[in-house]
């Protein structure tokens, strides 16, 4: 998912959010998760930033009822990082409340998105829909690049809609232009229209490489056949004299006078 859409895409962020929300993760779990998502060097950078962020989290926790663990000891930085005497996952589960664990997870997630992405960026302006590509797939490709390169969600939505309309293939562009202009169609309406009507609009050109033979009109009675050109005649080989340029019926050999002793 991270490789396909990029770690800054809304799809990947949604998956990350779902992972944290559906699992009560302690610091040990968080470290294991990001070891899977990051290269060793990226992980070192992430861990350093995370621990720095947890110092701010600790200051916030100290001002709340969660300032002590379940053994009534003051929460420390080691509690939040899962280090020292608190490196055991079982101890982390026993000592830390859910609200504290949520704050640790939020800091880990926010820090993750601060890590520079190694992905090669292709300008979203150059993302174009392929002739046979589904419009929904095209929008997903476009969205992933826009979200990697533009941070403002409002601007993201405007760009995705504009570029989807501008860089759609011929079939989908015709469908979009057929939609009512006042008010202008939303991205969801364009997706629905292109998904449901694409086959209808592209039916005549579905297989542009295949040509259907045109029906040949039956020859009218008594109609004369057009004479063959000299170039066409050169491809004709006579079965009598084996020379090109004529049929056996018109062979000069057949035009010679018959021998006297040949019976009529």
Main beta sheet: strand number and arrangement? Answer: none
CATH architecture annotation of the largest domain: Orthogonal Bundle
Number of strands: 0
Helix content: 40-55%
**SS class:** mainly alpha
**Helical stretch tally:** 13
**Average pLDDT across residues?**
80
Output the CATH homologous superfamily of the largest domain. Answer: Human Immunodeficiency Virus Type 1 Capsid Protein
CATH domain class name of the largest domain: Mainly Alpha
CATH topology name of the largest domain, in short, is: Human Immunodeficiency Virus Type 1 Capsid Protein
Strand content is under 5%
Oligomer: single chain
Distance linking N and C termini:
93 Å
- The stretches of 5 or more residues where confidence is low (pLDDT under 50) are 204-225, 260-264
Coarse morphology: elongated
Provide the succession of SSEs.
Answer: HHHHHHHHHHHHH
Work out the count of structural domains. Answer: 2
State Rg: 38 Å
InterPro entries: Gag_p24_C (IPR045345), Primate_lentivir_Gag_pol-like (IPR050195), Retrov_capsid_C (IPR008916), Retrov_capsid_N (IPR008919), Znf_CCHC (IPR001878), Znf_CCHC_sf (IPR036875)
GO molecular function, one term: nucleic acid binding
Organism: Hirundo rustica rustica
Domain CCHC-type: 238-253
Features:
264 residues; mainly alpha; Human Immunodeficiency Virus Type 1 Capsid Protein; Non-ribosomal Peptide Synthetase Peptidyl Carrier Protein, Chain A; 52% helix; disordered C terminus
Helix and strand topology:
Elements: H1 2-5, H2 10-22, H3 27-37, H4 40-61, H5 77-81, H6 89-95, H7 98-112, H8 135-149, H9 153-166, H10 170-177, H11 187-202, H12 230-233, H13 252-255
Helix pairs in contact: 3-4, 4-7, 8-9, 10-11
